[in-house]
Write a structure and sequence with these properties.
Helix content is about 75%, strand content about 0%. The protein has helices at about 5, 15-25, 30-45, 50-70, 75-90, 95-110, 110-125, 130-145, 150-160, 170-185, 185-200, 200-205, 210-220, 225-240, 245-255, 265-275, 280-295, 300-315, 320-340, 355-360, 370-390, 395-405, 415-430, 430-445, 450-465, 470.
């Protein structure tokens, strides 16, 4: 970035000794002295416009070096240096480039509202296609990071109007459109686009940390683990200091954790992430995954309860977040493990309700993966517990559990035997109206099969219980 300002393109054959001295300080790693010297010259010396411009450009270049070293923590001196050039030389041939650098500075500093204003000004003042394109693209990225996805898509459409057909510029717009698709939960569409671009212009994807990280995350569930690991290693070698690196480190550890022979390596990586990213979502996720990996094979209450306490504390301290959802799902799994081990003589029986409560809570997660896993595991547990109660003729307990854990009930047209059993249990406790409703739904789904006849037999018994002889006839 900042190609024009950092390239030193203002040097001329007729450069004065004053300007040459400033440039010497700058090019020898002393931007502070360069700025101080240039400002002294500008304040105390009558200079021709060309030399003033030269010195102002060197100040801007030095300020940009300083703010870059500081990771854009304080961009105001650099902005002031650029503004001084634009105020004194608004019609200079390089003025459009300075306006662009100003907008880019604001973007890097996270001052999105000001950056948007600067880009709008640039779009109105410079109609050259290449300038329009890069302004619209940066505007789209700003809207994307603000989660204003409709505005981001609109900006990309404007960008695309200037991009040549089949060019890398057009592919760039398509890549960011794929990022919007991914954010709008269309992962298959997003992956297809990024994968095609990666095949045609690999550097476009692998050269941008944000695009590459998104591509690797989408690749995770769509190809072999060794391929994903190769991409993850390549990413970390190139972008280890970028904000997306912890996500890729976590993903890499997740893949390694699935191989029993590499679990200790995964545990070490989780531990490092949990320590280095302790205050972030990724750090807390790493802590939970380390805890669950270390708990493999543990079944007794004494070993599991400390881990369950830690998960409960994490969930309580991170409410309404994906951390709470993952902690709750892990907690459900440990409660289920205690339940399954509760039949031994040495371990007291555990109620299924804590596990079911946790699964039901996690099934409402905003994370599709967590919600999907919680529903799948929770439905299986609920079905097994209900079947057990029905077999033991504990009708009231079965009905109570069915009504309490509605989010974990099987989907319509699934679990015929279980639903028929629940309808029977409802009939046995004289909940005749809900039992009839369920039986009617089962009959509609199975009216042309033997199953339908079984449902009708149960329905006839219900009518008898209700003394509804007309219905029986």
């Amino acid at each position: 970035m900042f190609g024009l300002l950092l390239a030193g393109s203002y040097a001329t054959a007729a450069e004065s000794d004053r300007t040459r001295g400033v440039r010497f300080f700058l090019e020898n790693g002393n931007p502070e002295q360069a700025i101080s010297t240039a400002e002294t010259i500008l304040a105390n010396t009558e200079l021709p416009p060309s030399e003033r411009m030269e010195l102002l450009a060197l100040i801007a270049r030095a300020e940009l070096i300083r703010t870059g070293y500081a990771h854009y923590q304080d961009i105001d001196p650099a902005l002031a240096a650029i503004d001084a050039i634009l105020k004194e030389f608004p019609d200079h041939p390089d003025a459009p480039e300075y306006r662009w650098q100003r907008a880019e500075l604001l973007w890097h500093a996270g001052r999105f509202k000001q950056a948007t204003g600067a880009l709008r000004e640039l779009l109105s003042l410079d109609q050259r296609p290449e300038e329009q394109m890069r302004a619209w693209l940066l505007l789209a990225r700003i809207h994307f990071h603000q989660n204003h996805l409709a505005l981001a898509r609109s900006a990309l459409l404007q960008y695309g109007l200037h991009a040549p057909e089949g060019s890398i510029e057009q592919a760039t717009g398509m890549a960011w459109m794929a990022m919007i698709d991914a954010r709008e939960t269309r992962p298959d569409t997003a992956f297809d686009t990024l994968d095609n671009i990666h095949a045609t212009y690999p550097q476009l994807i692998t050269g941008n940390a944000e695009l590459y990280a998104a591509y690797i995350r989408l690749l995770r569930d769509r190809t072999k683990h060794d391929v994903v690991l190769q991409h993850a290693d390549r990413f970390l070698k190139r972008f280890l200091t970028q904000p997306q690196a912890p996500q890729i480190r976590l993903l890499r550890a997740d893949i390694i954790a699935e191989e029993p022979a590499r679990r200790q390596e995964a545990i070490r990586e989780y531990a490092l992430l949990a320590q280095q990213q302790a205050e972030s979502t990724i750090g807390r996720q790493a802590f939970m995954r380390k805890l669950m990996l270390e708990s493999i094979g543990l079944k007794d209450r004494a070993s599991l309860l400390p881990r369950m306490t830690a998960l409960k504390r994490l969930a309580d301290n991170n409410q309404l977040s994906v951390v709470e959802d993952e902690a709750t799902l892990d907690l459900a799994r440990l409660w289920k493990r205690l339940l399954q081990n509760g039949d031994s003589e040495k371990t007291p029986a555990t109620s299924p309700e804590p596990a079911l409560i946790a699964y039901a809570h996690a099934s409402a997660s905003t994370s599709p993966a967590i919600a999907r896993q919680a529903r799948h595991e929770g439905r299986n547990l609920l079905a097994s517990q209900l079947t057990r109660l029905i077999e033991r003729r504990q009708w009231l307990d079965a009905v109570r559990m069915w009504r309490r854990f509605a989010p974990l009930r099987p989907a319509a047209r699934e679990a015929y035997e279980l639903r028929l059993g629940i309808a029977h249990a409802m009939r046995m406790v004289m909940m005749l109206q809900p039992a009839e409703t369920m039986l009617q739904q089962l009959y509609d789904e199975n009216s042309e099969t033997v199953r339908g006849q079984r449902v009708m037999n149960e329905m006839v018994k219900l009518w008898h219980d209700r003394n509804d002889e007309d219905a029986v006839e």
